[in-house]
């Protein structure tokens, strides 16, 4: 099935053949987007087909993904993560329906596994020998995991602020790690130069459109799990912006195919120290993201310049959504609050979405009758040092006797 029509520049509109470029427009250098033959796809892909599909992972949507087969990838389950109903939090915030999409249940504990799966599959289809990425952890961990057992050599450019837990995963999976004494943007540029110099395949967010296509499967699952409906509002954290653009693409795909009737508002949450998208959104239509000097406890969304900003801002504007920023203090406070109400342990970047929802609810920006889905993008075990800032961990030891236990008054 020739389901892909072409790749198209998001800014100048130039069309590219699928073998012509996998990255940026060769005219203006802006990101590309993959365009599908929806009429052809609709002949074999609809909600009835999905209802009869017993493949419960992201590959159940392969008919509307830009690859022919995931053959050759490790048989780990990517996708079909749970969507929890959070009644307690909804009551606290004055919201009628609140859902938590727990992306920490993916193989490496992150939504980035979705993008890496499609990028790795694409690299294998192109017979690439080396695949590379720059990341502070989540995207690179997922790529290292999903290339295990394949012919692909994986080279990761890891910035200085990469949490140790995420570095350990890279080494466990056998990736070749280049630790950069610099920030994410510097690692990103070195990764790009390696791609140009050595001809490696590049997975980097905002550079490779295939990764964005993997992330849209999160939107597909939400619609299925809500019985073929989209929530009124979807809230996700934003670093490079590719999760925001991927989600919006997914909801639009399902509407184009007649699977859902309405589209949700998309809301991006950023840390105050890394809020380039929010600054641009607040300036109004046509404003573009600018480079800043980012700094936040939430490493997974800490970027100086969001590489997928054009499509992310387009998603916010077209959906009637908005962008909100939260402080590191608000993020830290949100980690145990979310966990104790929903049993979902989020890393700082994942907890940011709950901090953002709290702020929006306090401002009256979410109506009582609106349904909200929070995308918790990463598991708290990915950054224990960051999560530890949210609680007081006692070093006090109790002697191993029942008399000492009774003195604690645990039964009062």
Largest sheet: 6 strands, mixed
Q: Please report the total strand number as a whole number.
A: 13
Tell me what the CATH architecture of the domain at 83-109 and 212-388 is. 3-Layer(aba) Sandwich
Query: Helical region count?
Result: 16
Overall, the morphology is globular
Q: What sequence of helices (H) and strands (E) makes up the elements?
A: EEEHHEHEHEHEHEHEHHEHEHHEHHEHH
Task: Report the structural category.
Answer: alpha/beta
Mean pLDDT rating: 94
Strand order of the largest sheet: 4-5-13-10-11-12
How would you describe this protein?
- 37% of the residues lie in helices and 15% in strands.
- It has 412 residues and is an alpha/beta fold.
- It has a domain at 83-109 and 212-388: Rossmann fold.
- A hairpin with a 5-residue loop joins strand 1 (4-9) and strand 2 (15-16).
- Helix 4 (112-125) packs across helix 8 and helix 8 crosses helix 10 (242-256).
- The protein is globular and about 75 Å long.
- The mean pLDDT is 94.
